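not sure who needs this but someone in the group chat was asking about Phosphotransferase family protein from Thalassococcus profundi so here u go. i didnt clean anything up, its just raw.
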Amino acid sequence: MDEAQLDAVADWMAEHVPGFGGPLTARKFDVGQSNPTYRLDSSSGAYVLRRKPPGVLLKSAHAVDREFRVQRALRDTAVPVPEMLALCEDDTVIGSAFYVMDHVPGRNIDDPSMPEATPEERAAIMAEMNRVLVAIHDVDIEAVGLSNYGPPGNYYERQLGRWTKQYRASETSAVPDMDRLIDWLGRHLPPEDGRRTLVHGDYRIDNMLFAEDGPACRAVLDWELSTIGHPYADLAGVIMQWQLPPGPEGRGLAGLDRVALGLPSDEAFVADYCARRGLDRIDGFGFYVAFAFFRMAAILQGVKRRGLDGNASNPEKAARLGAFVPRFAALGLEAAQA
């Protein structure tokens, strides 16, 4: 964000954010590949600004207005979210829509293996992650005004169509496993079962902030992919992440001794979720995990495309993430056969 844009933001905040006082400084977070995110500091406190990226964008992508709406709706629920302060849909201010929210202090954990934690600390944080996921799915969407936040109909059929279209629009080379995965998912769509809840769409430990001195979740972040849909998509997304290699790129748990580390097995995490929601079991869970791999592969392909087009928040990281697309497609096929 250049000096002229920062001045424009300060002027806009003076008019739209109660209690705001300048001067204003900004620092861009390394996270937020899709929507660039900045910490703002001023005499009245710390804020966070999240904006659409510049350039030509895929239709319906980078919907910061939806992020703002859902987090404002969740303000008085059991789901921890930052306080939403103001939304700017006027592109003339800094060139794209943005919103401003309170800055929430806390720990961001980008590695689910949590190398510096004790087994007891890891177990407590994973239990909290499970609890918050259930809280999201237990939100009364009618009461908070989100019943029209997503269209009706079969969620997986709708999502498969949407992300296949997005993937084709950003495709840079043929990935045969991705083509096979798309075909398999289309032939194995689960029947509509009536489950319709708020879904986060990208529920991972690195999209959460935790207390500095304990496992309590202070905020769930990055609601860009949220909608009204099927809750198992979020649960499968967690399990999908854990199938990846550990470390800063994969950020998974594959090959680790989870018992020794105090981390739950896939089965234990799913069983805990089912117990909290009063479910006996989840049949055909392999489909949901395969779908999660497919959708993440489509998202990463979009990140790669934006990097090539010069619109990525971090072009170098966009290229690294884009290289994972064939791997995600292959893992999706493995999950489909599990």
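also The radius of gyration is 20 Å. if thats useful
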